[in-house]
Design a protein that fits this description.
This protein is of the alpha/beta class. Helix 11 crosses helix 12.
């Protein structure tokens, strides 16, 4: 009885998923998928960046259709890859990944990060071809193509970083030598998580037409990455005045517990969706919303992955690196210091003070009436002015109505 050890579904010592589902012997299986190439992706940090890097999988699998993909990441990011049909195996650096790295031959290894650990893993990989970065054996990194070198130089020079006008997806594709257009990242919340999210919206605001998700999570690295509490509260008032009965689910991580509690106390329009959700439930809450408001964080990349239109408020990081996928608007204050990447702002009035609820409201509402669940297109963008934004035409989904305060379009 033949066992196809070259099949994508083969699991060496345990039954594959096809056999568990159908009970069919390997030799008679109609789902035999022979592997010609083995591909390794090394992407460790941060969780949002791991998720948006899944955008490389679609063109990668198109070019290497009979391939097996292994992804090395950190354990906290593994749930973002679990269930992705284009990833065959996930290895965490906190576990026994080195044994596999030393024992297996790889045809193509992709390492788009210039951090020392990722580069060291790439150096150790026994790969016929490598793209991205490898260790220089002295604690530094070696870029393997021109795009990788430019990305590395931006990473060590704040002035170059601030001048950049290319998206992360564009850089990723060039570093990995993949053809455009830039695909969306991918994540599919489980049915259980989607039911939980539906109960949060439906149970707390029965009959509400509009469902909105405010994600306050911004991480601890940059102080001004999080939008201001008073702006969230004012925008919630504007939403509820415009669409009475709207359900605004307030989410975040454990670090936002006190911040979200203050918001819940300030505005009766909020629904407490919790700050201790699993990644699955967090993504489901965003997926169930008609639109999402978020800083430049995991929440934005989740919205991109599940297809929910997002308004992203950006402060010290680069708004130009965010891919918009035809559905989103990226807003920042019209200050020269935008994209400074400073951990703490020295100014009395910061970029997130200057980006007010009224600015964001113009991006969300404008003069266009909103009908929940109708797949209308975004209106024509306005002319760029003091506050930058990003808009691209969106495919049928849940719309965000109205003209933005200003525009960053596909050309820049």
């Amino acid at each position: 009885m033949k066992i196809h050890t070259d099949c994508r579904h083969y699991r060496a010592s345990v039954p594959c998923s096809c056999h568990k589902r159908t009970g069919t012997p390997c030799c008679d299986c109609g789902e035999y998928a022979p592997v010609d190439e083995r591909i390794l992706i090394v992407k460790l940090d941060a969780m949002g960046d791991v998720l948006r890097t899944t955008a490389c999988l679609e063109p990668l699998k198109h070019l290497h259709q009979r391939s097996h993909v292994t992804w090395i990441t950190r354990a906290n990011a593994a749930p973002l890859l679990a269930g992705n049909p284009l990833v065959d195996r996930i290895l965490a650096v906190e576990s026994n990944y080195l044994e596999f790295l030393h024992a297996e031959e790889i045809d193509l290894a992709l390492g788009p990060d210039a951090d020392p650990l990722s580069a060291a893993i790439m150096l150790l990989a026994q790969a016929r071809e490598k793209r991205g970065f490898v260790s220089d054996r002295r604690g530094g990194v070696v870029p393997l193509n021109a795009a990788a070198e430019s990305w590395w130089r931006m990473g060590v020079n704040d002035a170059l970083k601030k001048q950049n006008r290319r998206t992360y997806g564009e850089w990723l594709y060039d570093i990995c030598e993949l053809p455009p257009p830039i695909a969306r990242p991918w994540f599919q919340p489980s049915d259980t998580a989607l039911r939980t999210a539906a109960r949060v919206f439906g149970g707390s605001a029965a009959g509400a037409g509009l469902r909105v998700c405010f994600n306050t999570g911004a991480g601890p690295r940059w102080e001004e990455k999080r939008w201001k509490l008073r702006h969230y509260a004012e925008l919630a008032d504007l939403v509820c005045d415009r669409w009475p009965g709207a359900a605004i689910a307030l989410v975040g991580g454990p670090g936002e517990k006190a911040f979200n509690a203050a918001l819940l106390a300030s505005n009766a329009g909020f629904v407490d969706a919790g700050t201790d959700n699993s990644l699955d439930t967090f993504a489901a809450l965003i997926a169930c919303a008609d639109w999402c408001l978020t800083p430049d964080s995991l929440g934005y990349h989740v919205a991109c992955a599940v297809g929910t239109p997002a308004v992203c408020v950006v402060g010290p990081t680069s708004s130009w690196e965010l891919d918009c996928y035809g559905t989103n608007r990226v807003l920042h204050a019209g200050l020269e210091c935008i994209g400074c990447y400073l951990a703490k702002c020295p100014l009395t009035t910061t970029c997130m003070d200057a980006l007010t609820a009224r600015h964001v409201w113009m991006a969300v509402d404008g003069s266009t009436a909103y009908t929940p669940g109708h797949g209308a297109s975004l209106p024509t963008p306005a002319t760029p002015s003091a506050t930058a934004a990003a808009v691209r035409p969106r495919s049928p989904h849940r719309p965000i109505g109205g003209p933005p305060v200003a525009v960053r379009d596909a050309a820049g």
